[in-house]
């Protein structure tokens, strides 16, 4: 590391601020994975790599996802608590330094996830239905782990503006508030299931995947089909995952009703294909 880079590195950032920003970035990475990979793309659940027994049940998989997200909520709250408790040093912290520690926290989770969760423990892969899952793992590690971590390091090494404005309360408070709001927004989004119909009531044309609650498979599926005029196309072996065709003009699907865990657009793809085969 050059002398210029060492001089610009924000060693004066208070330890609680460093830890708080790191924890918020770490939690944001968990929410990012949960929202994108578990809910939107549906490429895996937390325990998708475990075979047989109770792990074949969608209820167990979603319960594990919920436990994972609960841990991320706790980590995010710990990070917010550290920043709020040390508001004075936060106000004197450069925005780029705060962002740098958060980005490094984000990258740290991605590296930990791929190396430990994917490769050491084998709990899941980035894409469970891929022919060569290690390529997806490696690509994810490089882009969201290594490259993102280097970006965070560069943010830490960046020199802030000179003069009184560099440490003004407005700058530090704004940076901390923005980071906290971003994590809270991700946490709120994580609570919402993927909805197959849009707000205009016109998104119902096409296939919809319905994951039912334990013990309510056929009853929930037929009630759902009758309510929305859907035609049942296929179901998984255990009767918990149902594929349906929903007609154009169907009303917006209510959240967590009709006895369903998840209502998602699309057919037997990604996670749904894995569930249907079990």
TrEMBL record:
The keyword Transmembrane applies. The keyword Repeat does not apply. Keywords: Membrane, Transmembrane, Transmembrane helix. The chain crosses the membrane at residues 21-41, 61-84, 96-121, 133-153, 259-277. It holds the Pfam family DUF2243. This is Putative membrane protein. It comes from Pigmentiphaga litoralis.
């Amino acid at each position: 590391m050059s002398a210029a880079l060492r001089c610009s590195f924000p060693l004066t950032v208070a330890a609680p601020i460093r830890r708080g920003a790191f924890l918020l970035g770490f939690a944001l990475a968990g929410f990012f994975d949960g929202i994108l990979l578990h809910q939107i793309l549906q490429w895996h659940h937390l325990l998708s790599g475990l075979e047989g027994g109770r792990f074949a049940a969608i209820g167990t998989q979603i319960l594990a996802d919920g436990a994972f997200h609960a841990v991320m909520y706790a980590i995010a709250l710990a990070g917010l608590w550290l920043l709020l408790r040390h508001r004075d040093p936060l106000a004197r912290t450069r925005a780029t330094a705060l962002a740098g520690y958060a980005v490094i926290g984000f990258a740290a989770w991605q590296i930990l996830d791929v190396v430990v969760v994917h490769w050491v423990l084998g709990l899941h892969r980035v894409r469970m239905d891929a022919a060569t899952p290690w390529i997806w793992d490696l690509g994810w590690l490089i882009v969201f782990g290594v490259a993102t971590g280097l970006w965070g390091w560069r943010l830490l090494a960046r020199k802030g503006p000179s003069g009184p404005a560099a440490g003004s309360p407005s700058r530090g408070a704004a940076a901390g508030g923005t980071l906290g709001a971003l994590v809270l927004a991700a946490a709120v989004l994580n609570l919402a299931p993927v909805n197959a119909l849009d707000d205009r009531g016109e998104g119902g044309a096409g296939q919809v995947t319905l994951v039912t609650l334990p013990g309510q498979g056929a009853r929930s599926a037929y009630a759902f089909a009758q309510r929305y005029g859907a035609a049942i196309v296929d179901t998984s072996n255990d009767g918990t995952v149902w594929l349906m065709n929903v007609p154009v003009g169907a009303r917006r699907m209510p959240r967590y009703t009709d006895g369903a865990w998840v209502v998602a657009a699309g057919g037997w793809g990604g996670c749904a294909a894995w569930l249907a085969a079990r």
